[in-house]
Amino acid sequence: MASRAVIANALEAGGVRVAFTGKFAAPCALIEAGDPWAAVDLSLRGGRRNARWRITLVAGRADSEGALEALAELVDKADAALLPARVQLPTWAKPFDALLGNVPYAATVATIQLLTEEALP
Fold first, then answer.
1. Could you list the residue range(s) of the whole structural domain that residue 44 is in?
2. What is the Cα Rg of the chain in Å?
């Protein structure tokens, strides 16, 4: 969970609202466990855990003019926030419509992988 906090703290410091589950309002970044969520890399000395987090950026209403531009701006803002945290910048997927309360919002998704710093016991 410490790796999720690294991502969330970086995004919040960069002015991106963060949600983890439940109800949320756009624009925001929804952070959920990725698939696979956690794996151990024994090729590294002492073994390290690799955690994957799925980030969904949700911008403005998909039916509004400028929704794609708003989403692109949110991607730029998220990338700029993650860069100082020394997190590998993700590759964002093709935009899609995310339904929030039966209203479509422009969204994109990416997976971030973080390697733990300390060796496993």
1. 2-115
2. 15
